[in-house]
């Protein structure tokens, strides 16, 4: 792990959340919202010194946690490229960041969390069947579709462990990634709006839900 890896929070009695991809965009908004609500929340991202798609780094970071209550899988990359021009390395990097990281971190959470633990996956309308797709997004669509399916599978496996797993699938959100995508429309959502829904899913108020994928599409 990098020498820049942030120190884990001290035991405080407050819920502890790990947010992958928390250094920017939706992930950073989620991190801010959870902290605003009084949670201890830490970011795992390459910018923070933790590559959430690296098995060794994830296991080392988990060992530093005093406990673990919530995981938010928000890490993603977008490499806009038509399939005919996309390299295998670019395809692999997209799925590594958006899907492999969710697998590794969710597996670690299942091994570490106790009953009452919660996982929230940040998917996308791009991963929802029937929703509009855009050129150059095939790898991103594949990653988000996989994340939506992973949510349902993990919810089944988490049930006997007392761990809930849900997802949110926002439409266009005002982030640098949206600008990079070149999607021909104005953003329908702000990152803070997505963050509030994620915080609700992470908390006890959403206790009846597991295996849900909330579509955030105000039109």
Describe the structure.
The chain has 219 residues and is α/β, with parallel strands linked by helices. The protein has a single domain, classed as 3-Layer(aba) Sandwich (Rossmann fold), CATH 3.40.50. It has helices at 25-36, 55-63, 88-112, 138-158, 176-181, 191-202; strands at residues 16-20, 40-44, 70-73, 118-122, 164-170, 213-216. It has a six-stranded parallel β-sheet, sandwiched between helices. Mean pLDDT is 89; it is low at 1-5.
Concise description?
With 219 residues, this protein is of the alpha/beta class. Helices cover 39% and strands 14% of the residues. The longest helix has 25 residues, at 88-112.
Percentage of residues in helical conformation? 25-40%
Question: Tell me, what is the CATH class?
Answer: Alpha Beta
Q: How many DSSP H or I helices?
A: 6
Class by SSE composition: alpha/beta
CATH superfamily: NAD(P)-binding Rossmann-like Domain
Overall 3D form: globular
CATH architecture level-2 label: 3-Layer(aba) Sandwich
How many domains? The number is 1
Beta-strand fraction estimate? 5-15%
Can you lay out the helices and strands and say which pair or pack?
Layout: E1 16-20, H1 25-36, E2 40-44, H2 55-63, E3 70-73, H3 88-112, E4 118-122, H4 138-158, E5 164-170, H5 176-181, H6 191-202, E6 213-216
Helix pairs in contact: 1-6, 2-3, 3-4
Tag the structure with descriptive keywords.
single chain, 219 residues, alpha/beta, Rossmann fold, six-stranded parallel β-sheet, globular, disordered N terminus
